Amino acid sequence: MVNETDIILFIVVGSVVVLLLIATIVVFTATYNKLLFSKESVHNLALKSKELELLKSTIDAQESEREKIALNLHDEVGPLLSSVKFKLAKYKRDFKSGKLNEDSFAEDSDFIDLIIQNVRGVSHDLSSQHVVKFGLAKAIETFASGINGIQCLVVSELDEEKRLNKTMSRNLYCVLLELINNSIKHDNPSWFEIEFFEEDGSIKIRINHDGVGLTSESFESYEAESTGLGLSSIKTRLVLLGGTLSFSKINEMANTEIVVPYD
Amino acid sequence: MSNQVFRWINEIGILSGFVPFMALFFVIKKVHHYMWWTLFCILLTWLLSDCLTWFFARKSMNTYIIYNCYAIISTCFYALLFYDLNQSRPFRKVLLVVFGVYVIFSVWYISASHSWFKPVPIIDIFTGLLPLILSLLFFYELFKSLRVPNLLKYPYYWINSAVMVHFGVTFFAYIFMEILYQKEDLFQYIYLIIIISNIVYNILFARGLWLMKRT
After folding, report:
1. Rounded to whole angstroms, what are the CA distances from A22 to A27, A166, B132, B148?
2. Which residue has the higher pLDDT, A28 or A103?
């Protein structure tokens, strides 16, 4: 027969083992949840700071657009309209003295065209509605045709109605404008070739030119050093679209590629 | 404790084995077929060994051969379960080697000592220890990666807990087995603890399987 002490000892040891096992699982679960919570907190904080950075960049980009518009109005449209005012005063004087004739208005039509062109430029900066109306490729083609002294070819195989929504079109238009303007300013190209096409579930836009060009590394370093808002505006817009931007140089031809997934 | 009560608890323990087995059929399309068959084999060997042991024990026949075969086969299925759960290549290699050695050693040892119809404490200890270590390693891997957002809704957390509780208890019981075989009255108590751990195992396993329905 088993004595009572043996049974008690066995029950005590057995209970301790079972409790230890259950305690292991409970402690594991509690510690796991605690660690997960702290990991999530750090992750959320990082996400929030990234969102704030994005918001700041967006506000900065908007501010930059406003400054650009103000500068256009002040430096270009303003003086032209002042000239019109002076001319009108001159015409008034000439009219009184009987000197006003048809030849006096000869240059005025071109002058007014210049003002219209400037106002249109400002209007384009204010709203990219024409992108939505005519399509991204067409809008870029229109923009490129206005660049003096640089040949530009736009090729599109993109079904824009299916693949591009308004937000994508507007943001891509602004990104392309900024990239083209930067290239004209820094790379000194004599021609541009812009291709729009679809590949692997993404929209790809490739800009080729014969200028100096950039590499992805040099772009990163320019972006880090730059105090201007153009580069950060490009990055912000691409982040919003979930897209990527890469630079390369093959056989003396500079290549910039934008890849944006559908939706 | 009267024999009648002991028998009832034993039968409840055996019947509880049907719960996870049935739950498994509800998740047939929710689990990868390899994992489903592994779980099926674990639960089938579990249920089959319990039912056969119960059936032959009622006829007062020696059932140790059923238990010894079950111990080796089921341990291999647990190895397969953890092989599938852990994606680390070195871990998988070690697992295959360890369980290969375990199977070869067990078969050789039981045959060499002509113990197919006898209890073999050393094999029993390994049978409890190996799945226990694997379940602890699985918890450690979960802990290290923190890859599961809600542990209580993760099916394999429950299945692993079932394995840990059951094999923890049986490992403890097997350590004392050598002494207990000599004291038949006390053996009944330890067997009772194993039956209760069987019931807990079946409930936790079924809970894990049931959660797979939502995945």
Report:
1. 9, 58, 13, 20
2. A28
